From TrEMBL, chain A:
Native species: Paractinoplanes tereljensis
Every Transcription regulator PadR N-terminal domain range: 7-79
Full protein name: PadR family transcriptional regulator
Coiled-coil segments: none
Automatic annotation (TrEMBL), chain B:
Entry-linked InterPro entries: AAA+_ATPase (IPR003593), ABC_transporter-like_ATP-bd (IPR003439), ABC_transporter-like_CS (IPR017871), ABC_transpr_LolD-like (IPR015854), MacB-like_ATP-bd (IPR017911), P-loop_NTPase (IPR027417)
Domain ABC transporter, first and last residues per copy: 4-223
The protein's name in its UniProt record: ABC transporter ATP-binding protein
Keyword Nucleotide-binding: yes
SMART domains to which the protein is assigned, alphabetical: AAA
Alphabetically ordered keywords of this record: ATP-binding, Nucleotide-binding, Transport
Example GO molecular function: transmembrane transporter activity
A Pfam family hit: ABC_tran
One annotated Gene Ontology cellular component of this protein: plasma membrane
Entry-linked CDD domains: ABC_MJ0796_LolCDE_FtsE
Length: 174, 223
């Protein structure tokens, strides 16, 4: 899962304090593995250095934790490009796909279109592997089969997710 | 060149709309997979393209000719002479031998029995079904029966082969053999194939795929 882009996506939703960002990340994306505070602030530091976010002035009387982070246009452009780009169709990418779908729904982006783009990328890879099986020997075929079955599992997940988008949208935008 | 096309096709069963303005164009010699969830209208679209069902609105064109306005007899002749069909459960006639099943489309089109059976037998060799010519469908395995059904679908050298979940009743290895032979035969004959499937592994044999959702066709844009 891409922590910097996921934090950036959360900031596109609304400017946040570091603490709130960590809480939202842990709630939606942590899945039992909370993000350490140190990683939150080091990531935010790099995002600010690269011009993707800016820090608002600390509010009077508050500690460093009370700085508010705001996404820049450059950061927002990066989030859009990342969401729209299909993940390389290799097995076991569920966690990245998962983050993209949840974020897309939070940000009111066309999650179904992103899933379709991913579906197309997966099917294209399956077509290539099928051709390898048809043209090659049994050993190549066995290896291709391994890829095909994993891609097929991903596609089933994509289909099921696409069928549940309305319910998911309601849940992540509570 | 487009060989078969649906334009704004609509069809309802009672008050339930199955197709709501489906558009689809299939190129000559193309192998197209039509995917989509259960109840999305993908089989209904195939039946409209093949002249089995008549849409309530929209048009179907085959080889430059409008199909949906033809009468039942003309559509029936079109299906017999120009189209081939493979369904999920072979649907062989149990009283006939395997070779008679394969010869059936030719016999119905008026070919005499001997030449029809000769043409049918050539397909047994081609699809690795030698020795099964005289068996009845009850004496064939699922994969053998489906390959006999494939031979029947191709024996009249159709312009378009319509396949509705052709591997749906088979295990994955047998299904693969059927798809291998379906695709190889269609390529060799230059036959256009429209295959309805919910299985990505079957769709991966096609040149491209479309998805039917809520009675409309979505074309996937490849990155």
């Amino acid at each position: 899962m891409s922590v910097p882009l996921t934090l950036l996506g959360l900031l596109e939703r609304e400017p946040s304090h570091g603490y709130d960002l960590k809480r939202d990340y842990d709630t939606f994306f942590g899945r039992g593995k909370p993000l350490p505070f140190g990683q939150v602030y080091s990531t935010l530091g790099r995002l600010a250095r690269d011009g993707k976010i800016v820090m608002n002035e600390a509010e009077p009387g508050d500690g460093p934790d009370r700085k508010r982070y705001v996404i820049t246009e450059q950061g927002a452009t990066e989030v859009s490009a990342w969401l729209a780009e299909p993940v390389a169709p290799e097995p076991h990418l569920q966690s990245v796909l998962f983050s993209k779908v949840v974020l897309a729904l939070m940000l009111q982006r066309p999650a179904e279109e992103y899933l379709d783009a991913q579906r197309a990328a997966h099917l294209q890879r399956m077509r290539e592997l099928t051709e390898i099986k048809r043209a090659g020997g049994l050993v190549d075929g066995l290896l291709a089969d391994h890829g095909l079955f994993h891609l097929e599992a991903d596609l089933r997940w994509i289909d099921t997710t696409a069928a549940r988008l309305d319910a998911l949208r309601a849940e992540v935008r509570r | 060149m487009i060989i078969i096309e649906a334009r704004g096709v609509e069809l309802s069963f009672g008050h339930t709309p199955a197709l709501r303005g489906a558009d689809l164009a299939v190129g000559a010699g193309e192998i197209l997979a039509v995917m989509g969830p259960s109840g999305s209208g993908k089989s209904t679209l195939l039946h409209c393209l093949a002249g089995i069902l008549v849409p309530t609105a929209g048009e179907i064109h085959f080889d430059g000719r409008r199909v949906d306005t033809l009468g039942e007899n003309e559509r029936s002749a079109l299906r017999r002479d120009r189209f081939g069909f493979v369904f999920q459960f072979g649907q062989l006639v149990p009283e006939l031998t395997a070779e008679e099943n394969v010869a059936l489309p030719l016999l119905l089109a008026g070919t005499r029995r001997e030449p029809a059976l000769r043409a049918a037998r050539a397909w047994f060799e081609r699809l690795g079904l030698d020795g099964l010519e005289r068996r009845r469908s009850g004496e064939l395995s699922g994969g053998q029966a489906q390959r006999v059904a494939l031979a029947r679908g191709l024996v009249s050298r159709p312009r378009v082969l319509f396949a509705d979940e052709p591997t749906g009743s088979l295990d994955s290895l047998t299904g693969e053999q059927v798809m291998d032979q379906l695709v190889a035969s269609a390529r060799a004959e230059g036959t256009t194939v429209v295959v309805v499937t919910h299985e990505a592994r079957v769709a991966a044999y096609a040149d491209r795929e479309v998805i039917v959702r809520d009675g409309k066709v979505t074309t996937l844009v490849h990155p």
